[in-house]
């Protein structure tokens, strides 16, 4: 049996769904993925697909994006996985994937100093992971 996906208590500090995450820390293609989950369930390519946390490769553990889960908890995939997961404070997140996408894309061309710092931190974490035996 496959190991269940991890569901964190809260979204990571670089979650694209969080309002306090600097825009532009992810590539435009990553932000565009957020829009897809705003579609009606019948229009989704795979209604049971989930959005994994960008930190999964750093932690070495497949983790559901807590921001995605909080924003899309009414989708089929979200509902299946939300039964025992407490709600987080709604103001922490954008209301939709499209809203999160637009906010993130706003900084892609010219990331703020805060966004560049966050990106450098993420790159160091990934480099450290690759150096592990």
Describe the structure.
There is one protein chain. The chain has 133 residues and is mainly α. It has one domain. It has 6 helices and no strands. Helix 1 packs antiparallel against helix 5. The longest helix has 19 residues. The protein is globular. The two termini are 27 Å apart.
List keywords for this structure.
about 130 residues; mainly alpha; about 0% strand
How do you describe this structure in short?
The protein has 133 residues and is mainly α. It has helices at residues 28-36, 56-59, 66-71, 76-81, 97-105, 113-131. It is built from six helices and no strands.
Helix content: 25-40%
Count of DSSP-assigned helices: 6
Return the structural class: mainly alpha
Strand content: under 5%
Topology:
Elements: H1 28-36, H2 56-59, H3 66-71, H4 76-81, H5 97-105, H6 113-131
Helix pairs in contact: 1-5
């Amino acid at each position: 049996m496959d190991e269940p996906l991890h569901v964190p208590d809260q979204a990571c500090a670089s979650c694209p769904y969080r309002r306090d995450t600097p825009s532009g820390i992810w590539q435009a293609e990553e932000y565009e993925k957020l829009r897809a989950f705003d579609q009606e369930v019948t229009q989704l390519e795979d209604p049971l697909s989930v959005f994994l946390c960008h930190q999964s490769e750093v932690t070495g553990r497949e983790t559901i994006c807590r921001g995605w889960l909080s924003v899309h908890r009414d989708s089929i995939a979200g509902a299946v996985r939300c039964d025992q997961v407490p709600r987080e404070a709604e103001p922490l997140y954008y209301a939709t994937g499209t809203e999160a996408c637009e906010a993130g894309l706003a900084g892609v061309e010219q990331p703020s100093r805060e966004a560049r710092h966050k990106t450098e931190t993420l790159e160091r974490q990934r480099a450290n992971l690759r150096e592990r035996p």
